[in-house]
């Protein structure tokens, strides 16, 4: 992996903070999708929600230099299109020169901190539409978790709709990641049954005054055989989110492979399972995911 010089990043941030905007301004850009291509995006927006765990390693993502090195390696692999992250990580990657000719997706709402009593209050504490436009980034992403028994979900729905409007006004794509959620024993969990994912797609697709720039970021249902029927709910382009692979790595890859054959599915957005694979081989994990496309 490329070694990250933390001292140099701190020096630039301390003495030349304007260097971040300058790096964004001169960054070589590319289309979101190349002709005939599909998207392979590496996700790294988990830390801003306090979600630092990978498997049984509770603070695996807490070492920023290590995370940046893993991201730089992943972004250097053939077939990787770009990265999804919050401002702090994207600023570091800009200074490292790792975002040239890559798709850059700003993460917009990180206020629903993992494990907090207010976790479903997914406030927009990250990139705003104006930030994505100002920095010349290529898209935004928002999380939409809905619990029918939690009144705060209504606030999240409204905020998400206004974010969709703000992105569409600037002709910027926005990836909406919807889930139907439930609390059990005080812990928030996502419902991946076919009916729940179908409802989440229907809700997300109708946000805002236009869906022209809306993409969906969706999980594979708990029964992968349901995906074809579930994806009939919308004509919006979609990408699959990765999540935790667990012990059955080959089984997970097969689920992705099958879902990627569906007409609305345009690619993958995968994070921890590629950046922190069980065997430690980031390049091999990324290459395997790219091969599924």
TrEMBL record:
InterPro entries named among the record's database cross-references: Aldolase_TIM, Cgl0159_dom
Cgl0159-like domain location: 37-290
Gene3D superfamilies hit by this protein: Aldolase class I (3.20.20.70)
Pfam families on file: Cgl0159
Signal peptide limits: none
Name of the protein in question: Deoxyribose-phosphate aldolase
Organism: Streptomyces niveus
């Amino acid at each position: 992996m490329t070694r990250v010089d933390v001292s140099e990043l701190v020096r630039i941030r301390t003495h030349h903070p304007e260097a971040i905007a300058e790096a964004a301004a001169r960054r070589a850009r590319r289309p979101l999708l190349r002709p005939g291509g599909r998207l392979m995006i590496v996700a790294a927006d988990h830390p801003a929600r306090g979600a630092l765990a990978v498997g049984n390693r509770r603070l695996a993502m807490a070492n920023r230099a290590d995370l940046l090195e893993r991201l730089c390696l992943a972004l250097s692999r053939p077939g990787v299109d770009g990265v999804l992250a919050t401002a702090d990580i994207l600023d570091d990657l800009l200074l490292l020169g790792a975002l040239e000719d890559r798709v850059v997706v700003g993460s917009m709402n990180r206020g629903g901190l993992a494990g907090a009593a207010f976790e479903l209050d997914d406030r927009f504490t990250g990139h705003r539409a104006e930030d994505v436009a100002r920095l010349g980034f290529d898209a935004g992403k928002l999380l939409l978790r809905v619990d029918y028994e939690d009144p705060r979900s209504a606030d999240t729905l409204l905020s998400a709709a206004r974010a969709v409007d703000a992105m569409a006004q600037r002709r910027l794509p926005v990836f909406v990641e919807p889930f139907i959620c439930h609390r059990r024993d005080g812990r928030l969990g996502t419902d991946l049954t076919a009916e729940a994912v179908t409802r989440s797609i229907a809700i997300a697709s109708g946000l805002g005054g236009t869906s022209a720039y809306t993409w969906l970021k969706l999980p594979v249902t708990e029964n992968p055989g349901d995906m074809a029927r579930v994806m009939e709910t919308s004509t919006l382009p979609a990408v699959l989110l990765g999540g935790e692979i667990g012990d059955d790595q080959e089984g997970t890859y097969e689920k992705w492979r099958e879902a990627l054959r569906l007409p609305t599915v345009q690619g993958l957005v995968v994070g921890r399972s590629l950046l922190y694979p069980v065997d430690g081989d980031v390049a091999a994990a990324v290459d395997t995911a790219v091969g599924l496309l």
